[in-house]
User: Fold these one by one.
Assistant:
Number 1:
Amino acid sequence: MRKVVAMTGDQAAAEAMRQIEPDVVAAYPITPQTEIVMGFAQFVADGRVQTEMIPVESEHSAMSACVGAAASGARTMTATSANGLALMWEIVYIAASTRLPIVMPVVNRALSGPINIHCDHSDTMGARDSGWLQIYCENNQEVYENVIMAIRIAEHKDIRLPVMVCQDGFITSHAVEGIKLYDDKQVKEFIGAYQLEHSLLDIDKPVTYGPLDLQDFYFEHKRQQAEAIKNSLKAIPEIFAEFKKYFGSAYDFIDTYKLDDAELAIVALSSTAGTTKVVIDELRAQGKNVGLLRPRFFRPFPKEKIVRALSGLKAVAILDRSEAFSGQGGALFAEIRSALLDEPKRPLTVNYIYGLGGRDIDLQQIKSVYADLEKIVKAKKVKDLINYLGVR
Amino acid sequence: MQELVEVRWHGRGGQGAKTAAQFLAEAALDAGKFIQAFPEYGPERAGAPIRTYTRISEKPINLHCGVVNPGYVVVIDPTLLSPAIVEGLSDQGILVVNTNEPIEAVRKKTNFQKGKVGVVDATQISLDTLGRPMPNMPMLGALLKVVPLVKLEDLYKNIKAKFLKKIGEEKTNANIAGIKKAYEQVRVG
Amino acid sequence: MAEKKAKGWKDIPIGGLIDKAGSAADYKTGDWRTFKPVRDEKKCINCLICWMYCPDSAILVKDKKMTGFDYEHCKGCGICASVCPVKCISMQKE
């Protein structure tokens, strides 16, 4: 049984957390994540979950408490945005390197400064090398489902890594959409019971978490992390399949829209992909062969899938909602372009930085990108590698 | 109904523009439609002009940008009337305004000459029914008379589900009475 | 340090976990020493202040009496010699 209810993206994340009912949630509220923590705190106050909620005094403490709780074997969650993620930075790396399966909804917001509370991806893109897995959600339904799935992904024995479930600040976090909810029982059955192999609280088998790790073993532990990310590419599809069996929704590392016979494509994360689909329908009606690729996962980076999907296209515009200041385009562009380098049938690629600080990306802007791609194909070369879409 | 309907609400912080946009969407959701409702966040302060949006569609809504060309513009606060308020509204669009002034006065202030205009004194209605100036609910009634985006019964059902526990039966009924009154009193020209 | 070849990334617990309690004892810090403590048994009053202060738990005690040093772990820091109230511990070249 499922019901469709009206919820914001934040409420969808909080509802998923209620159904997951983690052992510990340590969190600090920050715009635009606030309604997740507020909503979950209400569930705790109303006795609807038995979770130990730790209202910490900062995000640094939030992630620290999560690390301690997760090392003790508790199923642990938190949530944050932008400057909150920045404040927990030190511990974000520790959570990943200690291999603790913490799940954290992140509501993407521009990382100051200048200070801004609206959407871009500068916060989580900055954390792309932290060792966390990163899922990017297009709409509220995906937020809800990905938060549930993230528990299984994080705790999978071949992965054992923390997961960020990212959604666009305000654009989905504060927009009401109809979402299908699943039964509490079904969700609990899907995520299953959690048993950490080595608990910090097991006095019969005492262990040490987080010891000093110098030249002699640090490198080996980092190598293990790289392997776990690699393993996740194999293990996550098992979880996709099981999710489909339980709930009917099909997931993959990437989402494509009318890409099979496309000559031109846009690559974009999260909610912008939805708006792009509307443009594609309009341009297809005019006989233009345009399509979309949306990576759902940025970590693990689904290189094979992306290369296969884009190979053979004539030109591809990769849209980044954050600036990397490298002169080589945003993170998504740099990685996809690099992945395509060895592909004999690689398309021409061009980068657009867009939507910083919540600047709206509308249908016209996206249309202009497809128009640019047509020009690139005609000229057989990319004139400006890095472009700024919608800036004055 | 068209495949995708977009409504833009103009109000001031505290007047319930967000709630109105959401209630309309939720009533449409109950009727099996696909919906979005979202505010345009700026300075979140009482009195600041704010815009909120409702999208209703027969198909899943992929759009995640702001509403540029709304089919309907609802103005909850009459002091916001200016030509800027009808930005993006085509001649086929409809403007619904909370005002005690005639339609011609609204056309003059907004420079909106060709499309339909609906007027209703929602502030007075809310004072009469609820005892305080909360024109958002009456404006929902006015809009639904001008264009039957959802059935009144679906809206009432939703309001009851949301309000009964929160504000009690008396005030919930007062809100519904306000919607009914505005539905009956709105003048369109 | 003459040691057997250290384990590789496939052979160690993940995440820097140490899954064995008290494993610090396996780390022989005795070869860090330049000077070693030597006790004059005749002068020692078995007050065990050295035992309290030793940062490496390298003072050996049996039946409430000091019996010597654990030279596998004593780093030769000299704290025992410094705190001894009767100066019965001297630091001597290895």
Note: Chain A touches chain C at residues 97-100, 160, 198, 205-211, 213, 216-217, 219-221, 223-224, 227-228 (CB under 8 Å).
Number 2:
Amino acid sequence: MGLTSLVLADARFPGGGHVHSGGVEEAVARGLVQDVETLRGFLLGRLRTAGLVAAAFAAAAARLAARGTDARGTDARGTDARGTDTDAWAAQASPAGAWAAQASVAGAWAAQASRAWGALDAEFDARTPSQAQREASRAQGRGTLRAVRAAWPSPVYDELGPRPHHALLVGAVCGIAGEPPEEAARCVAYLAVSGPASAAVRLLGLDPFAVNAVLIHLEPALDAVVETAVHTAAHTAVTEDLPAPGAPVLDLLAQAHVAHRGRLRLFAS
Amino acid sequence: MRARALLTVERVGDRSVVRELRSQSPLSLVPRRGTAATLDPAATVHLVGSATTPLGGDDVELAVHVGPAAKLVLTGVAAAVALAGTSSLTLRFTLDEGATLQYLPEPTVVTARADHHTLLRTELHETARVRLREILVGGRAGEQPGRYRGTTRVATGLGSCPVLHQTQEFGDPALQASSAVLAGNRVLGTEVLLWGADGEAATGESWALTPLARRGSLATAVGPDAVSTQRALAQAVAAHPGWAESSSERTLRSLGMSENAVRSTTEETP
Amino acid sequence: MSDDHGHGHGHLISFDPTETDHDHHEATPASGRAVRIGIGGPVGSGKTALVAALARSLGERVRLAVVTNDIYTTEDADFLRRNAVLPPERVEAVQTGCCPHTAIRDDITANLDAIETLEERFGDLELVLVESGGDNLTAVFSRGLVDAQIFVVDVAGGDKVPRKGGPGVTTADLLVINKTDLAPLVGANMDVMTGDATRIRGALPVITQSLVEDPAATEVGAWVLEQLACVPARS
């Protein structure tokens, strides 16, 4: 693991993650999570659904950002550095493909990259039907962007807009920093469970050692998620084929959490 | 058994007619006929027969095309029970300008030894409306579910912009039990609504209605049995302003008719 | 349909502090933005009452808004609105994930988002008061979040508080010893408190006040106005 993904996965990373519980606050309020065992089940389910979507998109974003960074470098030497899978993403986003014809290589790359980022954003939205979860993802993306611009400056962020999905941004940063897609996937898959685990410790006063052990026991599941994420990001010709596992109760919890505005809430999600 | 089926509905005058209908065993498509059908501006087609009992080896594909301004209601007549062995069902819906489709199948029961896969792809014009219901039941009463994996993708407009892409799974005990996924519930109901105005999110004890990012809303409900889940899902759907508006219009229309009928009888009385 | 369902600016409290589309934040305080003053201190020391007093006394002269970090997310915001101190749209509440000190010191993202939301809503803000959630004596604001900070303690918390020190009492730009009217009732020795405070803080100012006797928080208000005048970033 490189320093970049290590820092991004650190609970002390100043990206606003500590105010999100990833559904745990509502699950605790409903008695669905009440001890270490029920937390374990919650985290495993979260990892294999929302965590897998985030990991796959982070891996895809890391690939795209790495290509963008390479392309900028090689464009200066007059070389066409476009990659085939990115072509496919862009082609999917714009079937006409007419944009590439007259433009310079650099211009074509920029347009292509822009479409590819747009396709990733749209596909992530489509896999996040809960409005509350999309908002939480973009809120963390925006917060992370502030910290990221200071530490890993890059023009790539302009493609992601002011409120990128957190997983896409983390993937992009890893790609820019030269880390492989696997590390990007591992980082967001870990964040999909580490934040909620910490929230459960704070909300229920759970034994932090026991919760930490639960995280470690998730390693085989986390490895499997990372492997699927990296594999699909590398081998799917189009963004559409990235995994899209649903988590119906997570969606219900997220929506209920924002609906109870008058109630005591310590977390933003 | 492998079956490829086709259904095309077109608008003729103020009615929608089935233009093309090709089905083969194990899939049967039965258009509703009779007086009620001729009064209805929408065409109704029932999915019947063995299509609703996927067996190991069954591989069924149905392509449905709803032409400009045509209306189709596609329903099931009985619960689909996925039985032992690998089976798959692929549905491809294409909706042209101003078309509407309501896909309202009965629940799909995933029995213990099933390995059932579904794919539901809908491409619709930005002015078209669609309502897609799916109710999954994990096993018959007292039975552990077999494997199920179903993907729903809905894309709209010229650029085929994705509005929803979700894969639901049954049959993995860890996911089934996880309070992030099914929280031990046996039944999952969803309904995609791209049907007029999408309002604010709404939520109840076991259901939620949430606007999607680009267009449409998704109603979701979970429950211990099909009846309570369907009831919760209906509550979520009722909270959708676009759907509520169009259903109240329908109610008003039917009321209008009966009011006229009442008036004509009372006028005759004196 | 877009993402802007259900969280428009019409809401009294925004639960998504990042709802606006522009990110104007810069790493260092820049000209043209509101001066940000943090108000911290232990639970019950009178932070919210002080914010209310300042809003009342400065509200007509200074274009101000408030961010509250109350742990119950709406408690302080509701207080400020109920007392008609500020119009609801000038108060933003942030969730702190059970960690009020983290939100003002280690990871200031949620607070920056709230401040920027207010700055975007009111293009001409001069002052944003950021009230921390009630915490302990070690909680201070990050310099990345505020330009100056006030630490509020009260006599009912015991007259040893200033002597105990801690980053809040020691380093805050202004220390306010609140509820002086209660000193005789709780047996607090004001001379001990101010003496310890002055000794431990060196040249940094200390103000003692009672909002019962001076509901306008006149001295603190004057100090705040001074900050507005002397923050060089405002050109």
Note: The radius of gyration of chain A is 19 Å.
